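Hi W., the adenine complex you wanted:
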Amino acid sequence: MTGTAGALACTLLNRDYVDAREGACVPVMKIDVLTIFPEFFREVFDFGIIRRAKLAEIVEINVHDIREYATDKHKMVDDRPFGGGDGMVMKPEPIFAAIENLLGTSDRDAYPEGTRVVLLSPQGRQFKQPVARWFANDAKHVVIICGRYEGVDERVNDALVTDEISIGDYVLSGGEPAAVVVVDSIVRLLPGALGSETSADNESFEGGLLDCPHYTRPAEFRGMKVPDVLLSGDHAEIDKWRHEMALEKTIRYRKDLLRGENGESGSD
Ligand code: ADE
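Structure:
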C-alpha cells in the first residue's frame, strides 16, 4: 500500500510509522536477530502478545543465520583467540556482511534514523524496564546480534554496535535466551501490542515499585481467602491496598528500587 491510501490506512490502524518515501504503512518496529542457532527461535515468537503484535503488523521479526554470511568453504563463524586462551571467538567478517546486507552499510554513522544494533553479552549495560521503554518509544529498527562462545571479535563492537546489553549478572551460553527476553519486553510496550484491555502502566518497575499481588476466582481456595478489600467494590480502598502491597513487596525484595537505583533510562 502506498501514497495517501497508505497513510490513511496507517491512521485507521493507529500505526505510528509511515514510510516517508512511499507513504506506505510499515510496522512500528522491525527486529532482525542474527544468530548461529536460528532453530532456537523457530516458535518462540509465535505465542501470546508477540504473536498478536506480529499478526497485527505492529512488529516484524526476522531471524538470520550468521553462518549464511560466512564466505570460506567451511562456513566458519568462529576462530581461536589471538593471544591464546580458552574457547573460540566469533569472527567479524560474517557479522559485518550480515549488517551490510540488512542496513546497506557497516558505517554506524550512516545507519538509517532509528536504527539500533544491539550486541548481547554479559559485558553490556544492564537491560532494565526504562531501557526497554526507550527502545519501544524511539527505535524503529533493532538488529540484535547474539554472541556465542567466549565472545565476539571486539571490532564488531567498535564499528557496528550501538548498544552492548546484558540482561543480568550471570553468564548464559549465548545471547539467544537474552534476545528472547529483550524482544519480548520491547514488543509488549509497542503501541497497540497489549490491546486496549491491558496497560503496562501499573506493572512492576513502572513508577519505581514492584507490582502488587493479584487474585482471581474462587474467592476461597483450600482455606486461603482473597483479601476482603478486593471483594468490597470500594475502588479507592482497593487502590490504596494495592499501593501498600506493592510497597511492602518492594521493601522486602528490592530496596534498591526505592533508592532510585533502577532509574537508568534511554540509550547510549
Ligand atoms: N550472553 C551471555 N550471557 C549474557 C547475559 N547475561 N546477557 C546478555 N547476553 C549474554
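The two ends are 35 Å apart (CA to CA).

W.
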